[in-house]
Write a structure and sequence with these properties.
Helix content: 10-25%
Oligomer: single chain
Number of strands: 8
Distance between the termini: 28 Å
CATH superfamily: Gcn5-related N-acetyltransferase (GNAT)
CATH architecture: 3-Layer(aba) Sandwich
CATH class: Alpha Beta
CATH topology: Aminopeptidase
Length: 221
C-alpha cells in the first residue's frame, strides 16, 4: 500500500477538501454493509479495528503473497500504530470484509486529491481511490469475486457523488492486474506513485453498472 498523506488540493479544479469527498466510514468495528453471498452465506464489511483485527492483519501482511502490500517487515505494534493513524485521517479509511464471519479481505479507500497518486494523474471530483488485499479464499466451491466484486465496488460507489474508482497496483502484481480487469477496470498508463512503479486504472460508474446492479440485489444493509 502507498503511505497515506494529506495535501491541499487545487481549489480551481473543484476538488473537495480533506474529508469532504464521497467516502463512507464510521467507528472501529462498525458494520457498514451486509450482502447475501451467491452461496447464500453472509458477507459483511466493517470499519477496521486496529486492536481487535490486529491478529488477522499481521498474519496477512507477513505472508509472501502479500509482498506488494509492503508491510511484511512491520512488528505487530508498528502495524497497529499504522492502521490507528489511517483510522485517524479524514481522507483514508480501512475496512475488513468477512464471509460467514471468516475474514477474507482488507479494503482501503482514500481521496486521491489527498494522496501521492495525485502526482501521477489529473484527479477529478468523484474519484475514489482503493487498495485491496485478498487474505482468505472464502467457502469451498464458490467464485470469490462473484461475491466480493459487487460488495467492494458497490461500497466504493455508494455515495451518489462517487463517479470513478481509481486503483494503482504495482506493475509486477499480475494477480491484481487480472482481478481489476475481471471487475471491468480500464488500464490508463504506467505511473510512478511514491516509491512504487504502478499501473493506473479506472472503473467508471457506467462501466460498473453490472456490479452495482448485483450489489443492489445482494445488499441487506
Amino acid at each position: 500500500m502507498t503511505a497515506p498523506t494529506t495535501r491541499a488540493p487545487d481549489p480551481a479544479r473543484g476538488l473537495p477538501g480533506p474529508g469532504e469527498g464521497p467516502l463512507r466510514t464510521g467507528t472501529p468495528g462498525e458494520l457498514l454493509r451486509t450482502h447475501t453471498a451467491p452461496d447464500g452465506g453472509e458477507l459483511t464489511l466493517r470499519v477496521l479495528d486496529p486492536d481487535a483485527d490486529l491478529d488477522v492483519l499481521h498474519a496477512w501482511v507477513s505472508r509472501p503473497w502479500a509482498r506488494f502490500w509492503g508491510l511484511g517487515g512491520l512488528t505487530r505494534s508498528a502495524l497497529r500504530d499504522l492502521y490507528a493513524h489511517v483510522g485517524s485521517l479524514p481522507t483514508h479509511h480501512a475496512f475488513l470484509v468477512r464471509w460467514d464471519a471468516e475474514p477474507v479481505a482488507l479494503l482501503q479507500t482514500y481521496e486521491p486529491a489527498h494522496d501521492p497518486v495525485a502526482d501521477a494523474y489529473v484527479v477529478r471530483p468523484g474519484d475514489v481511490g482503493a487498495h485491496f488485499l485478498l487474505g482468505g479464499r472464502g467457502p469451498r466451491g464458490t467464485r470469490l469475486w462473484d461475491a466480493l466484486g459487487p460488495l467492494v465496488v458497490g461500497f466504493c460507489l455508494d455515495d451518489p457523488r462517487a463517479d470513478r474508482v481509481v486503483v494503482e497496483p504495482d506493475t509486477a502484481n499480475d494477480r491484481a492486474h487480472a482481478r481489476m480487469r475481471t471487475l471491468g477496470f480500464e488500464v490508463a498508463a504506467p505511473v510512478r506513485v511514491g516509491d512504487k512503479d504502478a499501473l493506473l486504472a479506472f472503473l467508471t460508474r457506467e462501466r460498473a453498472r453490472p456490479l452495482l446492479d448485483a450489489a443492489a440485489a445482494a445488499v441487506r444493509r
